[in-house]
From TrEMBL:
Record's keyword annotation contains Signal: yes
Occurrences of domain Protein kinase (ranges): 34-305
Cell compartments where the protein resides: Membrane
Mode of membrane association: Single-pass membrane protein
Organism listed in the record: Oryza glumipatula
Main location: membrane
Record-level Gene Ontology MF annotations: ATP binding; protein serine/threonine kinase activity
InterPro entries: Kinase-like_dom_sf, Prot_kinase_dom, S-locus_recpt_kinase_C, Ser-Thr/Tyr_kinase_cat_dom, Ser/Thr_kinase_AS
Protein's name according to its UniProt entry: Protein kinase domain-containing protein
């Protein structure tokens, strides 16, 4: 069978249009195609498989499930976004297909899977030393800074998480999965929606509860990623205890990159205590002892009288 697959992303970025050519791929039932042994992972919108182009180049094939919830609009959104993005810390789109009831995205293949594969496993975690973890965090920060400030448009990812950070053969990070991303003009800074999408635990509180999102939503998710370098965020409420109550008090990614790369910069103090505020009734004591926190230490939350 054959698929109508888009050209390389460099050509697409130059023309703002996807030139098409036909590549031949075997039917899914044949070995080496959509088989479990070649499955790299399961995303929110469908599975990802390892494959090859006819010239032998290894690729990652994201096959969107019909029940995934990502319709043609979201699919085309991801194509148009990634086709215009060029940065070393963003995954590279090689091609796409949307015919014969198939919606497929073809990406560069990254052999070291995703960040969660390492940091959420006790054995594999030991393979990534602290210098490498810092390099990964720096790379993610640079990719976000590009999306928020240096790309053609201001882009909010809205689903930044460890599973969407892919790692190349040298463990360099690349942000992936732009199906939920939002495009802003350079003058816009925030928006709202009634359709809350993403992953709890990484969502900024104002987005999860009120549908408000901005570049500071990605900053919150980035903060969770930093926390996860030493402990998996099993309970999403533990991340919320560390957020700044007003998203305006969170730093921009420009400021974050400056903090990460400067050895002499004085880090600003949080404007509010970095723990989750809990409402205390008259019957409850003013100090509430929490059983868990983001770093596994018992946390006392004090509500001032």
């Amino acid at each position: 069978m054959s698929f109508d697959v888009a050209c390389t992303v460099e050509d697409a970025a130059a023309s703002d249009k996807l030139r098409h050519e036909t590549w031949t791929v075997g039917p899914p039932a044949m070995p080496g195609n959509f088989s479990e042994e070649n499955k790299l992972g399961q995303g929110g919108f469908g599975p990802v498989y390892k494959g090859r182009f006819p010239d032998g180049v290894e690729i990652a094939v994201k096959r969107l499930a019909s029940h995934s919830g990502q319709g043609l609009t979201e699919f085309k959104n991801e194509i148009q976004l990634i086709a215009k993005l060029q940065h070393t810390n963003l995954v590279r789109l090689l091609g796409c297909c949307y015919q014969r009831q198939e919606k497929i995205l073809v990406y560069e293949y990254l052999p070291n899977k995703s960040l969660d594969f390492f940091i959420f496993d006790e054995t594999r975690r030991a393979l990534v030393d602290w210098n490498k973890r810092l390099a990964i965090i720096n790379g993610i920060a640079q990719g976000l800074l590009y999306l928020h400030k240096h790309s053609r448009l201001r882009i909010i990812h809205r689903d930044l998480k460890a599973g969407n950070i892919l790692l190349d053969h040298e463990m360099n990070p690349k942000i992936s999965d732009f199906g939920l991303a939002k495009i802003f003009s350079t003058n816009d800074t925030e928006g709202n929606t009634k359709r809350i999408v993403g992953t709890y635990g990484y969502m900024a509180p104002e987005y999860a509860s009120e549908g408000l999102f901005s570049i500071k939503s990605d900053v919150f998710s980035f903060g969770v990623l930093i926390l996860e370098t030493w402990k998996k965020n099993i309970k999403f409420s533990s991340a919320w205890r560390l957020y700044q109550p007003s998203w305006t008090h969170r730093p921009t990614m420009s400021e974050v990159v400056a903090m990460l790369t400067s050895e002499s910069m004085t880090l600003p103090e949080p404007k509010y205590p970095a723990f989750y505020h809990m409402r205390v009734t008259k019957e409850e004591p003013s100090t509430v002892i929490m059983a868990s926190s983001a770093n596994g230490i018992t946390l006392s939350v004090v509500d001032g009288r």
